[in-house]
What we know:
It is a single chain. By secondary structure, the protein is an alpha+beta fold. It is built from 19 helices and 18 strands. Strands 3, 4, 5, 6, 11, 12, 13, 14, 15 and 16 form a 10-stranded mixed sheet that branches. Strands 1, 2, 7, 8, 9, 10, 17 and 18 form an 8-stranded mixed sheet that branches. α2 packs across α9. Flavin-adenine dinucleotide binds next to α2, β8 and β16.
Amino acid sequence: MVKPFSAIQRNTYLDEMQQEELDLLVIGGGITGAGIALDASVRGLSTGLIEMQDFAAGTSSRSTKLVHGGLRYLKQFEVKLVAEVGKERAIVYENAPHVTSPEWMLLPIMKGGTFGKLSTSVGLKAYDKLAGVKRNERRSMLNKKTTLEKAPLLRKEGLKGSGIYVEYKTDDARLTLEIMKEAVHRGTKATNYTKAESLLYNEAGKVIGAKVKDLVTGKTFDIKAKRVVNAAGPWVDDLREIDGSKKGKFLYLTKGVHLVIDQSRFPLKQAVYFDTEDDGRMVFAIPRDGKTYVGTTDTYYDGRIASPRMTQEDLDYILDAANYMFPSLKLEEKDVESSWAGLRPLIHEEGKSASEISRKDETFISDSGLISIAGGKLTGYRKMAQRIVDMVAKDVGVKGKCTTDKIVLSGGDVGGSNGLESFKKEQIKVGMDLGLDKKEAEKLVKLYGSNVKRVFEIMETSGEEAKHFHMPKSLYASLVYGLEEEMTTTPLDFFNRRTASLFFDIHWVKEWKVQVVNYMAYRLHWTSEQRDRYVEELEREMAYAMNPEEKVNA
Ligand SMILES: Cc1cc2nc3c(=O)[nH]c(=O)nc-3n(C[C@H](O)[C@H](O)[C@H](O)COP(=O)(O)OP(=O)(O)OC[C@H]3O[C@@H](n4cnc5c(N)ncnc54)[C@H](O)[C@@H]3O)c2cc1C
């Protein structure tokens, strides 16, 4: 029997974590922590994970949402990184084909641009080779005419042709959640809104756990563990500071912003990866779910880590870049429907600029035994986890190799990438037989993969309650599934990390927020103070997604 990962039973996980000495406590529920918890649980380590916000609420819901090898790192001769991460793409895709899909990426070659025809051709070929790309997904070079057939909105002036190659598009937060859910199904005890406030040490000064606060109830307690891993992303140095071990290398945070524009204003059909006119940085424009998103920026950040925001300057920079490469669009601020901003936890290297700093992950082990892991990419999460768990397993005397390359993630049981299309077809029909229109059924199948069967079961059995709370059956089933099986604790968890609608369907958020709040308040027995706080949080995040920081604060 698979253990439910329920917001309603959050307390049982917290109780369980206090009752035993764990082999491993992971601090941080982004993709790095989730990956470590999964690998550790699969190898038989008793594992706990605490996350102070929602799972993936840090950087892991704020990326460019690509499972990619980092083509541009070839420019910095990061050959090993590109090879490792590039190869991981195929594994992530196979293990979770429902949240990962191949996306052909067009790299325009412009007169005076960073890459010429030869360097693009050689660079993409090297990428194919390093990343072990399948034959049918290898790069090809296009002339100007074919390039414009694929992307008619592209700037014609100075266009010489393009290279085209495959990357994978994902939903970063849902990928993190599917890893987290798989870890929990395999024994990890995990809770969100649970903060490590300080670390516990034995008499020899070795770290033996954490003092933890449940941010929902305000209660504090100790969790003991043989090993503690700090996978706190941009907060890694805060924990190293608590541990007294922040020396040598340290984190350097840079902010990256993305804008979302409706396809009616930016009808892009082909993903494009292009140079900006001003500073030659590379920017993505990617079609998704009726929208196009464009980004990113890369600027030094020293504000509040939990809430990086889009500023007017970020917005203008990205719109200028898009208007240069797609000049007929004449995009304006009012076309921006939503946005997000994230922080790259990069590792500081003397004398290098933000865009030049390596994206490699690094591990620090302090005198107290605290293991900190920082840097890296979403795409390379499994390898990062493998390195950490190899070390921890040896320390606690557990044998066994990493097998996560073969582990299908929660929702990914669709018959592999080859089986995905027929699975989708079959399940869309089930959804339509339950009264959904094709678009709604498709949305649920894409969002939940093989877990959609459970979502449909909820729809089938609880129609009256949906009516009572004035919700369409599909929304009701999504929400109940989120509460009972994905630890959805707040309305923002639901609209941001569970459904990505805060970014890609903000009108839907506006339409259903009241019903969602009413239902969650009823199921989770909120006090009126809690309800006000969660509503205020959702409203605030909507305002910041839609407007530059200066306008919200004015
Ligand atoms: C703009 C941008 C674009 C990117 N694009 C891509 C991309 O397209 N593809 C790709 O592969 N990578 C990309 N990346 C990189 C990728 O997003 C990150 O490498 C990855 O998400 C980092 O995950 P993490 O788990 O280490 O950190 P996070 O996701 O930030 O997770 C750390 C978690 O630790 C929690 N935490 C911190 N302190 C505590 C505490 N005391 N107690 C409990 N919990 C705590 C935080 O709340 C947070 O949720 C991008 C990054 C950025 C910023």
